[in-house]
Write a structure and sequence with these properties.
The protein is of the alpha+beta class. 37% of the residues lie in helices and 14% in strands. The chain binds zinc ion. InterPro entries: MULE_transposase_dom, Znf_PMZ, Znf_SWIM.
Length: 502
């Protein structure tokens, strides 16, 4: 690790060992007037590796702060390949321990941002370059989505923590092995009508509107408004965790959260009605709230489209948390990190799926094994050629293998045989794997990842940027945030909330 730190102006020197002038070689003392105080331009050079100590990594001053500072970590691998690198507090500690100098949090924060840009080869003040990077499509087409993936897209917005603020909008699908399959990323000033509308318009370029397509999100009003405008045929569902979170927040202590969860997961209408009735008895206000949230949007058996077992926006949240550190970077390094992450995921999935020799993907095979165990002691009776009555713990279900339905509702909803269908298929000695949807086959799984996610493989001066993009003047937004400490929101799980509500 190498750190090079330069100060300009009145940084209080509390016993630093080296005082170096910016305009000279860094190992010369800058205290030429011998008054024991640092000169106007003071550079401190810090290195844990002494042999590299005399490498000057760069110079940088910030005109808009009184005591600017630079920290470069170009030689280390920090901030590359998804590594987190030093956090502002680490930088403060390093400088304090090594030199006895105190940096403010914002100095360390600015330094880190500068270092990230340097490491990733991003010139400063490059806001206008964003558009030029964006015209480079890194993925040839979103073909994987149409190779039999579940037509459910989970969308979510999250804050960016770079100095220009803004939000990142994410849209992701989930593949047949329950892995995230990101569709689109967008960066906007905030989550408002026009940004969500713009984002859905961009998605629509690659994912067409379709009655079999579903979107899952939180209850952000701009999301529903934009979807109704742009994806007219698709169905919109809301994240059940989000809904339960609100129930707990606004209707505390009623103990209804578990019931809401059960009602939302009901596969049959009667089952839903039973739970919903109980909710309304305990708390009529919650009942009203849930009706206001539109039953067809949060109850599985009332949902008009297919959502399979996807009833939360967890998938999008996982992407956001995988990008926790890059979300602190400025836009191009952020995009670069996203591209890197996708390249890595695609390679991992290609290798994993190539190894799968069983008839279904790993996660679905596991699911089926669990269901085999659960249905072991069921009794089945044949009704028709492929129709069976299955007696399970005193409740009877009717399975139609050919039509891929079971009166429990799970078979047709998830497109994977439920425990009753599995038991039935076993008893009549038929191959149960033919009753799982093709999207769960290793062949489909491999097809999703056939494409590669490519970096921009040519130097900047050879980029073929269209004239109108080249000519566009893109300025950073005016909402520049003071680079102070940003409090990270503690991630509270739904389980935490349910626990807290009791
Ligand atoms: Zn069933």
């Amino acid at each position: 690790m190498n750190l090079c730190v330069t100060f300009k102006g009145g940084v209080e020197d509390v016993g630093s060992k080296f005082k170096l002038d910016l305009n000279k070689e860094p190992w010369f003392s800058s205290d030429e007037d011998g008054d024991g105080r640092p000169n106007e331009n003071l550079a401190l050079f810090v290195g844990t590796d002494d042999t590299k100590r005399n490498v000057v990594l760069g110079k940088k001053t910030f005109d808009d702060t009184k005591t600017p500072v630079m920290v470069l970590e170009r030689r280390s691998k920090n901030y590359e390949g998804g590594l987190e690198g030093h956090k502002p507090n680490d930088i403060i500690n390093i400088i304090r321990t090594e030199y006895g100098c105190d940096l403010t949090y914002s100095q360390a924060w600015e330094s880190r941002e500068y270092a990230v840009n340097e490491v990733r080869g991003i010139p400063e003040n490059s806001y206008g370059k964003n558009t030029k990077v964006l015209v480079h499509d890194t993925r040839s087409e979103s073909g994987g989505f149409y190779k039999g993936m579940r037509k459910v897209i989970v969308v979510d917005g999250t804050f960016l923590k770079n100095k220009y603020k803004g939000v990142m909008l994410v849209a992701t699908a989930v593949d047949g092995n329950s892995n995230l399959y990101p569709i689109a990323f967008g960066i906007a000033d905030s989550e408002n009508d026009s940004s969500w509308e713009w984002f859905f318009e961009q998605i629509k370029v690659v994912i067409r509107d379709d009655k079999d397509l579903s979107f899952i999100s939180d209850r952000h009003v701009s999301i529903s408004k934009s979807l109704e405008k742009i994806y007219l045929l698709s169905t919109h569902g809301i994240c059940i965790h989000h809904l339960i979170g609100n129930v707990i927040t606004y209707h505390k202590g009623r103990g209804v959260a578990d019931l809401v969860s059960r009602a939302s997961k009901a596969y049959r209408v009667a089952e839903f009605e039973k739970h919903f009735g109980e909710i309304c008895n305990i708390s009529p206000v919650t009942g009203e709230y849930l009706e206001d949230a539109q039953v067809k949007k949060w109850v599985r058996c009332h949902f008009h489209g297919y959502r399979y077992d996807l009833n939360t926006k967890n998938a999008a949240e996982s992407i956001n948390s995988a990008l926790r550190s890059p979300r602190e970077y400025s836009i191009i390094p952020l995009l670069d990190s996203i591209r890197e992450m996708l390249t890595r995921w695609f390679i991992e999935q290609r290798e994993l799926s190539a190894k799968q020799k069983d008839p279904l993907t790993v996660k679905v095979e596991n699911k089926i094994s669990r269901r085999i165990g659960k249905g072991k002691y069921f009794k089945s009776y044949r009704i028709g050629r492929n129709i069976l009555q299955v007696k399970a713990n005193r409740v009877d279900f009717v399975v139609d293998l050919e039509r891929r339905t079971c009166s429990c509702g799970k078979f047709q909803m998830g497109k994977i045989p439920c425990r009753h269908a599995i038991k039935g298929a076993f008893d009549i000695c038929t191959d149960l794997y033919r009753y799982a949807d093709d999207m769960y086959s290793p062949t489909s799984w491999r097809e999703y990842y056939e494409e590669t996610v490519n970096p921009i493989g040519i130097p900047e001066n050879e980029w073929g940027v269209p004239d109108h993009i080249e000519a566009a003047k893109v300025l950073p937004p005016e909402t520049r945030r003071h680079p102070g400490r940003q409090r990270k929101r503690r991630h509270e799980t739904v389980e935490d909330k349910i626990r807290a509500s009791h």
